[in-house]
Specification:
The protein is α/β, with parallel strands linked by helices and 282 residues long. It has helices at residues 66-72, 103-109, 124-134, 141-151, 155-158, 171-183, 201-214, 227-233, 261-266, 271-277, and strands spanning 26-37, 40-51, 55-59, 83-91, 94-95, 110-113, 189-193, 219-223, 236-244, 251-260. It has one domain (20-277): P-loop containing nucleotide triphosphate hydrolases (Rossmann fold). The chain is built from ten helices and ten strands. Helix 3 (124-134) packs across helix 4, helix 3 (124-134) runs parallel beside helix 6 (171-183) and helix 4 (141-151) packs across helix 6 (171-183).
Length: 282
């Protein structure tokens, strides 16, 4: 169980990474992770390792806990009343749920892109500059904004209208803007929760290409209902399913299998994985 917060403990930085090449290949080490909402156990017994500069996909039927687990990595579940996380998530060896860890510092290093594009009702420039400004960064903002937009493959499309409202962009452009906004604060990890579900096939292809480019610099975790997308973009895949309590009819998510994506889709070890991938259920 996660330790109770100690109000007298001083917050500590999550981890300082001076030399990326010196960082072990395992970014997250997850052990016996369980998530509760009040007395309800939403997810149980999740054990996996997330590797650096890879794309890891979470797949499974609706309600199996994929997004719940994803939100554990940047402590977004802390914002939900009654939510509780048990077990451990080690980030470069540091327990993210240690009471001394500042959740705000966690979210600086671990960025989040949501299912529906959610640009702020501000200019394109101000959307990207929002995080750096919040962090107190005032110098070289123009360069920061340009670099983030370039890395999100959006600069050439918006460089002549940075002062225009972000709400005027297309859905695919808005999602790439949200990615630019996330990486403007220089995180080390990007979490993506169904980032393409609201996009058309052309915009989806742009985001998938972008993910392949970004994994050179970032570790990426993506939740997707699209198994073809998981097969196309990810290096490793985790398959979740639900267990139904026959007495209460409540459903708890459980991790069934986690392996390299090519093996998961060609020779899964668990029959439940094969049944889901081949469309026999879910």
């Amino acid at each position: 169980m996660s330790p109770e917060p100690n109000p007298t403990a001083e917050p500590v930085a999550v981890v300082e990474v001076a030399d990326v090449d010196a960082v072990p290949s395992v970014v997250f080490d997850v052990r016996e992770l369980a998530v509760y909402y009040g007395e309800f156990r939403a997810v149980r017994d999740v054990n996996l390792e997330i590797h650096q500069h890879e794309i890891t996909a979470f797949i499974g039927p609706s309600g199996c806990g994929k997004s719940t687990v994803l939100r554990c990595f940047d402590r977004m579940n802390d914002l939900i009343e009654g939510a509780r996380v048990d077990g451990r998530i080690l980030y470069h060896g540091v327990d993210l749920y240690d009471p001394r860890i500042d959740p705000v510092e966690v979210r600086k290093r671990i960025g989040m892109v949501f299912q529906k594009p959610n640009p702020f009702p501000k200019s394109i420039y101000d959307n990207v500059a929002f995080g750096p400004r919040l962090a107190g960064r005032k110098k070289d903002l123009d360069d920061t904004v340009e670099q983030a937009l370039r890395r999100a493959a959006l600069w050439d499309e918006v460089k002549d209208r940075l002062g225009k409202s972000a709400m005027g962009l297309s859905g695919g452009q808005q999602q790439r803007l949200c990615i630019a906004r996330a990486i403007a604060v220089e995180p080390q990890v990007l979490l993506m929760d169904e980032p393409c579900s609201a996009l058309d096939p052309i915009a989806t292809a742009r985001i998938e290409d972008l993910m392949q480019e970004l994994k050179v610099d970032y570790t990426i975790l993506i939740v997707t209902h699209n198994m073809q997308q998981a097969a196309r973009v990810s290096n490793r895949t985790a398959f979740f399913t639900t267990e139904v309590n026959p007495e209460s009819d409540t459903r708890t998510g459980v991790l069934v299998e986690y392996d390299k994506t090519d093996k998961m889709f060609s020779a899964p070890s668990d029959e439940r994985t094969e049944n889901y991938i081949t469309g026999r259920f879910g």
